[in-house]
Each structure stands twice: as structure tokens, then as C-alpha cells.
Amino acid sequence: MAIGRTDSMQELITILESLYEETIIGSDVNIVKHLFYYLKADNREFEFIYEEEILIAAVEDIKTDTVVLTIPDLVEKGSRRARVRFEVMNINYQFEVAIQDIHHDQTTIRTPTELQSYQLRTNRRIPVDDLFMNFIILFRSLAGGSREVGKNLYAESRFPHLMKEIRKDRPDIKLVNLILTEAIQKVSKDYDLKFFNELEFLTETDSFLKDLLQETGKTIYIPDCNRIESYIQPTKDEFLFNFQSEFEKMKLEYGEEYTFNFFETMRKTESRDFFVSYVIAPIRLYDDVVGYLKAYSTAMDRFTIAHSQAIYIHELSEIISYAFTKGTIQYGSYETMQSTTRVVDISLDGLLFEIQDKRLFHYLKRHNIIKMFIPLRKDRTLILRGEIIRFLDRGDHFHLGVNYFSSAPDDMLYLEDFLFEKSMKILSE
Fold first, then answer.
1. Which residues pair with 69 in a beta bridge?
2. Alpha helix stretches (DSSP H) within 307-386
3. In the 8-state DSSP scheme, what is residue 354?
4. DSSP state, 62?
């Protein structure tokens, strides 16, 4: 049965109408569609309950009467009914949905025709202006999000000591660097770990490579520097690429002769430098490419870098990127000897905090499991773990909403006392 609308619901409708092209004309089905648009635009993961099993889903596409979801772990069991559960704008929603089709990771559901169940938060959040915290990201997966967890199993079995260190709250970056160096040298003793410098002079080829990595984030693998085909022939690899797509784009813009000569000059230059094969994997800080890891073999070596070794370097670059970013967040928020992240409001269920860094804001959309350290007073620091579920762009700053899922012993009792004191102070004013 459809439910009535509260002031909070009307506020949500107004916000959604301002964000998306479609207009809500008053029917529940359009409100429901806009909720799914909200989830898709924010790249939000949410719960999909099928046969009492809780899976993680994300919106892939929204059509006239259906919604396409990405659910990697769904195994069809005969039932064609499920429930979806998520939070939008401080309101918890739950819908029963009909499954129309299941195809690999894609599940198509019929768009619910009415608002079936929603509720506001049980515990009211108390606004604060004198509370600050530190936080670090907790490991869920290298790429972030529950949907990517399965992709890390191979990497974790291949690099157990490295992954064990990275999973720590405060990984030792020097130790990580030593383990990484040893791992890279298993592929080749010849390697470069380079970070871009805006003041550094670059050759035409180096400038091309820098632009390519920063624009696409692709890992480049050239198995044979003596053959132009290795540079420009089509490949079907999921993780490793050559310059084929760049060759096609340049051919349309500059013509085939100029483009072919450009890559042939690149090949000849690398051959003169005795390169036989190489792999170049991007290094990221947050989601920005800031450098690369290049492992290569030369004419003085008696081997070429095989496909499996190139994948190995690709995986190492992802681990390096995660480790560097986690270290940067740790240093910026945890090593300054003071709490610098402002808490906007707080309750027994969760809190809203504020950051200024746009790159961090977008990174946390995928790496959204965090550990928070909140000094309530000099002798008591709360240690809470939570999941970021709300992402609000305020223009010159950003607000993120967290739901707790665990805490240190007795921390919630201290928090309850703190909230009571704050609420009494607000009432007295």
C-alpha cells in the first residue's frame, strides 16, 4: 500500500527535481525512479536481499519500466522476488521488487510502482561546532567497494606479506617500499618508479606517454620492441593495452602517414636504447595518475617480459597506489598531532563530517569504510568504525554522512553522556 508524504519527503522531491532532467509529476513511480537516479549519480552501493541472502548492488541503468542492477555474486535460486534497501537524504527505504531477468552480473528488476516503506532516523543528530576528529580508511578492496572484493583474492594470495601490512591501520610505508622493491625485482632488475614533475622538460614521446597515462589510467604492455605490430595492433586484454586506440585517434586527426611515423619513431628510439619489452603501469594518488612503474628487459638480458609478468606489475601498481593514498590520508588526518576534520553533527547512529579536498571526497565514495578517532575530552577518545553512506557537495566544501557499525568498549556510553549534555545545553540556550 502506498504511504503518505511528509515534509522530509517533499524536500527530497524538490531536491531531486533540481538535480535531474525528468520532472516528478506527483506519482510514486516517478519518485521511486528518481531515488534510483540518485543512487546511480552518486555511484552508491546498497543492499539487495534475495532468498534472505544480503548482496551488494549498484544501479547500472534506468529505463522506462525497469532498473538494471550490477550484482556480481547473485546466484539464481528460482525465486523472482527480492528486496532492496538503502538510505537517501537521511531516510531509510525498502522496496519489494520483481526480478525480470538475470544475466551474468546484470539483474533487471521492474521499477516499483509505489513507495512501500520508509522511516526517518531513530536517534536525532545533535549539531556541534567544537568537535573534531581524525580518520583513516579501512581496507575493503584495492579498487574500493564490495563489488571489487573478489578481484583481490588472487593479489592477496600472491602478495600475502604486502597485503598484511597494507591492511593495518597505520602501515609502515618504508616496509611497504622494501617489500614492493623485492617483488618488482622478481620480474626484472631493470625498472623505473617515476613521479611526474611539472617543471621537468619532456621529449615529445615522454609528453605523449604522460598525457596518455593521466587521461586513461591504462597499463601499457609492449611484448616486442622490434615489431611495430606490438605497438599498434588490436588487443583484447582486460588489463593490458598497447597504443592501438591512440593510433586510431591520431590517424583520424593527423592522417595515417604521420601517425605511423610517430609510433615507428618511438619504436626505433626504444630499440636504439636496447629495449626488448616493457610494461608501464600508472601510479595514482587518490584517483589522479601522478607517476608510473616501468619494468623492462634489454638486449643484454636473456628474457622478455611475459604476459603473466606484466599482469604482476599491473597488480603491484594498484597496491602501490592504494598504499600511497592511504599513507597520504593517514598523514593528513592522523599524523598532525591534532584533530583537524570537523564534525558537523553526531548521534548514537552516526555522524556528519566536513572535508575540503575534492579528490578525497570522490575517493571516499569507493573506499567508504573508515575508522574514526574522536576526542570527546582530554581523557577520552572515541574509536568508531563506520560506513560512509551520504556524500553532499556543498560547493566550497563537502559533507559526508557515516553510519557506525562497531566501537571500542564503553564508547557508546560516553557518547550517550556527551549527547545528553549537548542537548541540554541547546535547550537551555
1. 59, 107
2. 307-334, 358-363
3. E
4. E
Q: Would you state the cell numbers that stand for residue 215, as one nine-digit string?
A: 587521461
How far is the C-alpha of 5 from the C-alpha of 10, rounded, in Å?
7
Residues 35 and 103 in one domain: yes
Whole-angstrom distance, CA of residue 245 vs CA of residue 11: 46
Judge whether 301 lies within some domain: yes
**E strands, 332-425, in order:** 341-346, 350-355, 369-377, 380-393, 398-407
Q: Which among 105, 101, 108, 177 has a CA at the least distance from the CA of 148?
A: 105
One domain for residues 282 and 298: yes
Q: What angle do CA 359, 362, 364 make, to 5 degrees?
A: 105
Average pLDDT on 74-98 reads 82
Alpha carbons 338 and 353: distance in angstroms, whole number: 16
* CB 371 within 8 Å of CB 401: no
In the listed set 303, 333, 363, which residue is the last one of a domain according to the structure?
333
319 and 374 within one domain: no
Element (H, E) at 419: helix 411-428
The CA distance from 94 to 89, in Å, is: 14
What's the mean per-residue pLDDT of the chain?
83
pLDDT at 152: 55
Give me the mean pLDDT over the 235-250 stretch.
92
d(CA 393, CA 358): 9
Give per-residue burial for 310-338: e unless 16+ CB within 10 Å, then b: bbbbbbbbbbbbbbbbbbbbbeebbeeee
Give the span between the Cα atoms of 28 and 34, in whole angstroms. Answer: 10
Confirm whether 384 is domain-assigned.
Answer: yes
In this predicted structure, the answer to whether residue 199 has a pLDDT above a threshold of 60 is yes
pLDDT in the model for residue 20: 47
Q: 337 falls in which pLDDT band (50, 70, 90)?
A: very low
- Domain span including residue 190: 158-333
346 and 382 assigned to the same domain: yes
Terminal-to-terminal C-alpha distance of the chain: 43
Using only the alpha carbons of the chain, give its radius of gyration.
Answer: 25
Q: Are residues 275 and 313 in the same domain?
A: yes
Which single residue is written with the C-alpha cell 510502482? 113
35-39, 57-61, 390-394: least confidently modelled range: 390-394
For the chain, what is the domain count? 3
pLDDT at 186: 93
Do 353 and 329 lie in one domain? The reply is no
CATH number of domain containing 322: 3.30.450.40
Asked whether residue 273 falls in the same domain as residue 301, the answer is yes
Q: What is the DSSP string of 52-99?
A: TEEEEEEEEEE-SSEEEEE-TT----S--EEEEEEEETTEEEEEEEEE
